[in-house]
Amino acid sequence: MNKGKNIHMLDTLKATQRVVSGQRTTGACHIGHYFGVLKNWIELQHHYECWFMLADLHALTTHYQEPWTLKEHVFEQVIDWLSCGLDPKSCQIFLQSEIQEHAELASLLGMITPLSWLERVPTYKEQLHQLQDREIHTYGFLGYPVLMSADICLYRANFVPVGEDQLPHLELTRELVRKFNHLFGTNPQYQSIVNEALDKMGRHQKKTLLDLKKTYQETGSKDQLETAKTLISSQAHLSHHDREYLLGFVEGAGRMILVEPQALLTPTPKICGLDGNRKMSKSYGNVLNLRENPKEIPFKIKNMPTDPARIRRTDPGEPTVCPVFTYHALYRSKEDCADIAQQCRTAAIGCVDCKNLVAQAIIDFHAPIYEKGLSLKNHPSYIYDVIRQGSKAAKEVAAEQMKMIKESLCIGFN
Ligand code: TRP
Ligand code: SF4
Question: Fewer beta carbons within 10 Å, N or C terminal of the chain?
């Protein structure tokens, strides 16, 4: 009986762990996005409380000269997401610009963000260099990671699934969270808010929590802490706000106004583009889209470069230097790949046939996604409903968190 209850409590704990991530709305998703990020999201939605954001403000940081593209991109991006398996019943999909707290928190975090932290983000200088056709020597673009920190902190995210290129941004977020909590983590009303929250728990539960805190602080026992956390999260009649105060109280860390997020890295190698020598990216024009028309796929694969040393059909090839082979690795089983590698090295298979095989595997995978996209496109009002409902839910969480943040900064009225 007791054991069963504990298992149930653990489930509750896991379900209350939050995942937040986002994607800029700058155009159609390609397979780099899919294998690098979306595939991971699709899995996570079944295990955590997931919030996935259409980052149109982030899109504006680089695309402000063509704002008219944004609405279309938002719409298409939701179709991309739903076609490949995100399910609005299992996750929330919301639009960043619909929740004004994102801009508001970004501005507040800006107060404590040293310029040097932003200037040393590796992607910053790199992008300035790479996106030379866009004028991005702007305050907004420099502040990109601050806005991203706001996205994460508003929802008290525990985990943030991102591709490797985003890790420096996440590290900056963590530093900002620590700095923020250090500067604003205790305020004069702290103890009275904790006391009120404790009273709301009722005498018996309050005593249990105080005992757990005492043992945890004396022994450092993680079990006691976990049990205390579970007890706190089971207090459904307490507000999120109250529960956070209690958590900070038990941990002895004062008030955890912002939560330090952890990265969930997708273990995927960089996806190379159709041109074979660069990473897949829309700006290089070398992409295979998630909703690629199946009819186009064979042509796109046919034009790919292969092992440059394999000139004649009878020359043996080397799959590890062949861009086509990286696609086999994405779409076909390990055994099939080993088999192809062997046939390539012995010149048993030619590049034309090898490409046909991989093209077929890609078609088999993407055709259903393409079809689903076509049918979703016929139901625009459904797409807008998904965005509207997700944004409404996001707004509620963000507003509550913002209330606590403003209180800690002594701004606004309560
Ligand atoms: N910067 C991310 C990217 O380009 C997108 C993003 C915006 C994001 N806000 C976020 C990712 C918050 C995770 C969390 O991929
Ligand atoms: Fe590449 Fe396949 Fe040709 Fe080998 S046979 S070089 S893996 S395309």
Answer: N
Give the pLDDT of residue 190. 72
Average pLDDT over residues 188-192: 71
Ligand at shortest distance from the CA of 301: 2
Pocket (CB within 6 angstroms of ligand 1): 20-24, 55, 58, 148, 151-152, 160, 162, 166
What are the residue ranges spanned by the domains of the chain? 3-184+261-268+379-408, 190-256, 292-377
Is the backbone of residue 343 left (phi > 0), alpha (psi -120 to 50) or beta?
Answer: alpha
For residue 359, the ligand closest to its alpha carbon is: 2
3-class DSSP string for 347-375: CCCCHHHHHHHHHHHHHHHHHHHHHHHHH
In the prediction, which pLDDT does 29 show? Answer: 97
pLDDT at 341 over 80: yes
The arrangement of secondary structure in 3-184+261-268+379-408, i.e. its CATH architecture, is 3-Layer(aba) Sandwich (3.40)
Q: Whose CA is nearest to atom 3 of ligand 2?
A: 351
What does the alpha-carbon distance between residue 340 and residue 325 come to, in Å, rounded to a whole number?
9
- The per-residue pLDDT for 253 is 60
- 7 has pLDDT over 50: no
Residues with CB under 6 A from ligand 2: 306-307, 310, 317, 319, 322, 324-325, 344, 349, 351, 354-355
Distance CA 363, CA 331 (A): 10
Calculate how far, in angstroms, residue 272's C-alpha sits from the geometric centre of ligand 2: 15
CATH architecture of 292-377: Orthogonal Bundle (1.10)
CA 24 to ligand 1: nearest atom: 5
